[in-house]
Amino acid sequence: MGAYVFTTCSAKNHDLVKKLGADFIIDYQKKDYIAVIERETQGKGIDMVLDTIGGETIQKSLQIIRSYGRLVTIVDHDTPQSLLTAWAKNITIHFVFTSQERSKLDSLRKLIEQGQLFPIIDRVMPLAEVAKAHQLAEQGGIRGKIAISIILNIISNY
To answer: What is the pTM of this model?
Structure first.
């Protein structure tokens, strides 16, 4: 049992998302993902959308989710959106916000060590450049995440 995965990304990331398991890649800079999915599914739509973008993604994605489908979002939405389409199609919407807990990080580490989770690191920057790292992330165009390296200099009096 598996899922047929549609994803959006820029052209430079097509190879990466293909390696990660995407079946159908849509270049969001050139094509409207709603129109592509409507065409590719012959208007039947899809069962689920995972929103990692925000903005108008919820509103737009409701158009292509089948009745009784799901939408999961992991980003905060500051723009009010009409959910009438979701109500009419009996779509379930999950807003997933996690708290920062050590146990969750330990679980993620185990998945990485077992080869079940593959974090994509664009670059590693020192803690002293954390402001620059934020600027780069906000500008977009990075591939994966920016990791911050923290090196502790412990001086002992032995």
So the answer is: 0.76
